[in-house]
Write a structure and sequence with these properties.
By secondary structure, the protein is α+β, with helices and mostly antiparallel strands. It is about 50% helix and about 10% strand. It has 10 helices and 4 strands; from the N terminus they run αβαβαββααααααα. The chain is globular, with a radius of gyration of 18 Å.
Length: about 230
């Protein structure tokens, strides 16, 4: 049996089965990415809810795993060379799980790098920009009188949706017929635009029919339907 006692986080969130991947997360877009990947791959894992309402992410135990106080994070008791591997940042976790499972990342070098290109597009573009737009549309930013910050993120979100719309021309998924980590990293964020943030009309989401079809296609996967509620909120 793996010994995870060296990780302080396991004192706050004890592992019922220390031999499987420990997931510390919340069903936000970034959290859903990793839950979806774990469900898709079939890798055994144990989810632990990191409750932002209780500031769990700011506790010493969580910060010992991710000093950047963000979810998701994992501990794989069976990491490289058979040693436990702690890991944070959703993009890095997706790449690691793809390589561990041998799934959802092309084996050929060109396909691999093209896929990673779109993962980085989400990490550096779609996620941050949609999130900033959401702040100005749904949260405290809506009370700022100066319209320029809000409009900046709305315009950039609309531009990014156009990039994705173009990429999906003639493709069911970002890499063609194959579902990859490029999709797993992207659809949880895309669904927030017309969903959680309620900004669909603002960005003219009806002008991006391929994006709408794509989000539904990804959401309809059985693993996706489970992932949006993992870890379960109390």
């Amino acid at each position: 049996m793996a010994d995870l006692s060296i990780f302080p986080i396991t004192k706050r969130w004890p592992a019922k089965d220390p031999n499987v991947i420990q997931l510390y997360s919340l069903p936000t877009p970034n959290g859903i990415k990793v839950s979806a990947m774990l469900e898709e791959t079939g890798l055994a894992y144990e989810p632990h809810l990191v409750d932002f309402g209780s500031n769990d992410q700011m506790t010493p135990e969580f910060l010992s795993l991710n000093p950047n106080n963000k979810i998701p994070a994992i501990i794989d008791p069976n990491g490289p060379d058979g040693k436990p591997l702690p890991l944070f940042e959703s993009g890095a976790i997706l790449v690691y799980l793809a390589e561990k499972s041998g799934k959802f990342l092309p084996k050929d070098a060109a396909g691999r790098y093209e896929t990673l290109q779109w993962v980085m597009f989400q990490m550096g573009g779609a996620g941050p920009m949609f999130g900033q737009m959401g702040f100005f549309v749904k949260f405290a930013g809506k009370d700022i009188e100066d319209p320029r910050p809000r409009q900046r993120y709305v315009d950039e979100s609309r531009r990014l949706l156009g990039v994705i719309e173009g990429r999906l021309d003639g493709r069911p998924y970002m890499m063609g017929n194959d579902y990859t980590i490029a999709d797993i990293t992207l659809w949880p964020w895309l669904r927030t635009v017309n969903g959680f943030y309620g900004a669909g009309e603002l960005v003219g989401i009806e002008n991006f029919p391929r994006v709408l079809d794509y989000v539904k296609r990804c959401e309809d996967r059985p693993a996706s339907q489970k992932a949006v509620n993992i870890p379960a909120r109390g």
